[in-house]
Amino acid sequence: MPKGIHFDIAADDPEKAVTFYHSVFGWQINKFEGPMDYWLVTAGSQSEPGIDGGIGKRSDRVATGRSGHIIITFSVPSVDEYIERIRKAGGNVLMAKAPIPGVGYIAYCTDAEGNEFGILEADPSARIQV
User: What is the pTM of this model?
Assistant: First the structure.
């Protein structure tokens, strides 16, 4: 059963947001070593319930780019299968399946009420096709 595994915070100035969230919540935040400017958030110890996330530049948003909200991503065994389920249930795909190198495949969707969310299929062999 898919479970929330990641939150994504969009910011005009990600480094300012990194400072804010570290200051307020004490989160450990480190720059992602990948193809985009993104900071990975460890929001607590692994023994606590909850999820970790990330902070990225609002202009790099892969979903609709609307401001003022945080997107939750759910772990799924197959992005392709869940895209079909989402469409059949009245949702929409905002961003088609795309690789995150070394992590897996992601897509951004909306539910039948227009709420945005992500789905992620873990696959460490994921690579960007050139």
Answer: 0.78
